[in-house]
């Protein structure tokens, strides 16, 4: 096989932006810094390509390389703060997350639906963080999380169908994996006022979440209280979560209206 034939059959991304994206995707909260060999393995790109592309990304301010390890630059971090979902939503809701944390004293989170998963937009943990929970920027399954269910309960049928089609993976013995049971669970949330995940994402951890709506009445996000099951009880935490979400909705919908 000639070199040109091998190139034509290569699965390596052909564009410089695609190669840069593959390198950026190699980083996550468990891999904040990567050596060259790790970056090659996690990106799936040839070593020479990674070395050349990463070098150019350093010049552009997309990556840093203190010593012999690569990491995401502060330049990209600054840009991320301009993303509307981080800026507008977070700025409007953060005071209510802080109030909710002060009342509950366990982790509070803010999330939005991103495809069939929930993107964690903000999180307050205090001095006792729970490492099993995703960090800001992390993704969690929508079907077995309080945040996801609070959003799905007010989403379109097609959105719920897409989540179900993506697979209702079992994370713990309590995870609901039946489409019928999930739909029944979602149907009860509007009257109840909150979604309840009882150890379905992580053993020993429960979550109560409520939706946040936009000025147009569409569900935009959800906030939650997440912690040890003994501390996160619906009868005690549920009303506080529901009230915080209602107040956050008023603040967010007003902010969105005024910005337009």
TrEMBL record:
Residue ranges annotated for the IclR-ED domain, each copy included: 75-254
Top-level taxonomic group: Bacteria
Keywords (A to Z) from UniProt: DNA-binding, Transcription, Transcription regulation
Gene3D superfamilies in the record: 3.30.450.40, Winged helix-like DNA-binding domain superfamily/Winged helix DNA-binding domain
Signal peptide (residue range): none
Database matches in InterPro entries: GAF-like_dom_sf (IPR029016), HTH_MetabolicPath_Reg (IPR050707), Tscrpt_reg_IclR_C (IPR014757), Tscrpt_reg_IclR_N (IPR005471), WH-like_DNA-bd_sf (IPR036388), WH_DNA-bd_sf (IPR036390)
Domain HTH iclR-type: 14-74
Pfam families with a match to the protein in the record: HTH_IclR, IclR_C
Matching PROSITE patterns: HTH_ICLR, ICLR_ED
UniProt name for this protein: IclR family transcriptional regulator
Species annotation: Lentzea sokolovensis
């Amino acid at each position: 096989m000639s070199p040109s034939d091998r190139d034509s059959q290569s699965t390596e991304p052909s564009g410089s932006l695609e190669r840069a994206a593959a390198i950026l995707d190699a980083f996550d909260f468990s891999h904040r810094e990567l050596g060259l060999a790790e970056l090659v393995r996690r990106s799936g790109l040839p070593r020479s390509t990674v070395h050349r592309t990463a070098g150019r990304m350093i010049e552009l301010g997309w990556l840093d390389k203190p010593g012999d390890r690569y990491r995401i630059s502060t330049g990209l971090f600054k840009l991320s703060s301009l993303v509307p979902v981080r800026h507008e939503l977070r700025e409007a809701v953060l005071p209510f997350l802080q109030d909710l944390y002060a009342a509950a004293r366990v982790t509070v989170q803010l999330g939005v639906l991103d495809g069939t998963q929930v993107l964690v937009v903000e999180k307050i943990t205090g001095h006792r963080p729970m490492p099993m929970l995703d960090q800001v920027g992390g993704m969690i399954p929508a079907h077995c999380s309080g945040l996801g269910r609070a959003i799905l309960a007010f989403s379109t049928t097609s959105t719920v169908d897409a989540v179900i089609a993506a697979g209702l993976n079992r994370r713990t013995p309590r995870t609901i994996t039946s489409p019928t049971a999930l739909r029944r669970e979602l149907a009860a949330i509007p009257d109840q006022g909150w979604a309840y995940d009882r150890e379905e994402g992580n053993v020993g951890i429960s979550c109560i979440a409520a939706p946040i709506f936009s000025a147009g009445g569409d569900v935009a996000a959800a906030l939650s209280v997440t912690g040890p099951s003994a501390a996160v009880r619906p009868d005690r935490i549920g009303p506080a979560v529901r009230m915080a979400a209602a107040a956050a909705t008023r603040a967010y919908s007003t902010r969105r209206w005024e910005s337009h």
